[in-house]
Amino acid sequence: AFSLLFTWWLSDYSRLSPRTDPLAHLIQLVGWLGVCGSLVALYNAAQSWAERGRWLWSKLGDSAIALACLGFVWFVFAGHMLSWKLNY
User: Fold this and answer.
1) Cα–Cα distances in Å, from 48 out to 32, 38, 58, 63, 88?
2) CA distance 82 to 73
């Protein structure tokens, strides 16, 4: 969503105005929900490995999802995409 918004903004610089700030904040809110959802994925992976009767491929799949979520969190924090300030 951020890349679509930035492409839309950069196609016409007059769109970079306080009028479009609520849209950017909405996308940031969805990003924060994704970060919080990553905590759920990490918890699920930990529970998966703690459960004895669980299939190995299921544990590995849960771990892969948790790692993908951590990659997402790193990407958005490294890109400063979740800052509530809009500097443009």
Assistant:
1) 25, 15, 8, 9, 43
2) 10
- Please give the DSSP secondary-structure letter assigned to residue 73: H
CA distances from 66 to 15, 27, 45, 82 (A): 37, 22, 7, 20
What is the three-class DSSP state of 50?
Answer: helix
Print burial letters for 20-42: b (CB count within 10 Å at least 16), e (below 16): eeeebeeebeebeeeeeebeebb
pTM of the model: 0.70
pLDDT (tens digit, 0 to 9) for every residue of the chain, 88 residues total? 777 777 877 787 777 778 878 888 888 888 899 899 999 999 999 999 999 989 999 999 999 999 999 999 998 888 887 877 777 6
What SS3 class is residue 64? helix
C-alpha span between 37 and 42 (Å, rounded): 9
